[in-house]
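Hey everyone, long-time lurker, first post.

I ran two proteins through the pipeline my lab uses and got sequence/structure pairs for each. Pasting them in order. The first:
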Amino acid sequence: MTNTQAGVAQAPPPPPAPTPKLTICRAGDGSRYLGANGVGRVNWVPYTVASDYNRSLAEVYGGRDGLASRGPGAANIPHRPASSVAGAGYYVQVSDPCHQATPQEACAFLREQLDGVDARLRQRRDDADAQAERTGLRDQMRGCG
């Protein structure tokens, strides 16, 4: 049904955009990314690291500024010879942990991503990839308040 005002039919307002539904994953270096189909990236890690008291790789490696975030040789990485550690030669698959984000968390994550793209565009306005990424992020954010 439409409302009329002075004989002119008005269309009803469009329904609000839904809030984004995202799966956010945490990488071994502590950074976050969107998980495809709710599954995080798979990494091969030494068994002795994976069995470290049920901690995530981000916790084992020290988070965003931990050992995994530095280039080779930039950190003093503690180690023991493989022969002295049981299972040191074994590697296992470990998936990055993921979770379904709340609407507020999803919008905050997308805002962070958009801020990063905007920073890139301030440096290089002609970056077509960043422009396309910005458009996609803004589309995803339509349901954010």
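...and the second, right after it:
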Amino acid sequence: MSESAVEWPAVGLTLRVDGHEYPVPQVWIGDSLLAVLRERLDLDEPRDGCSIGECGSCLVTLDGRPAAACLVPAVAAADRDVRTSQDAAFEAAREAVVAANASPCGFCAPALTVAITDLLRRNADPGPAAIREALAGLVCRCAESGRWIEAVARAKEAGVGDGGTRGPAGGDSGEMAVLVIEAGETES
């Protein structure tokens, strides 16, 4: 059988991203949410840093909980609430990241925005150690943690996490959880 004759399993699905519904007619069942967001929906964010869940660059929220989009099968995100850092709910945190120059090159800014919003939603007044611990999963080569601490302070001043400029809700207290849906697993 020739390679061109092989048919890969594909499905049609609808993704709800940043409050908009996107029908995606042919998605290979092995495609990640990150691949579909970037390649099929042409979104610039989240970023693709490693594609194996190591760097945190592809952080989004899925039903209000942080998720590494490269590890979530697109089919597991169908008909669920996906939020990228481009969503209006992240505006104040995004502005804080820029004001603190917390991502000088800009590559990790989208993930940092999502992570800061999640941190402040769970912990309204984190100290430097808690900030470093919560953001430790994000790989950044051009900013020192002092800038990230300043970005969190600026986001807090702007009301992120206090109900004023709140990010997507969900989750509980503790360190940043990265949600990964295994094949066949359902979230209740």
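Reply from user beta_strand_b:
Welcome! Quick read of the second one: The chain is about 30% helix and 15% strand. The first strand starts at residue 10 and ends at 17.
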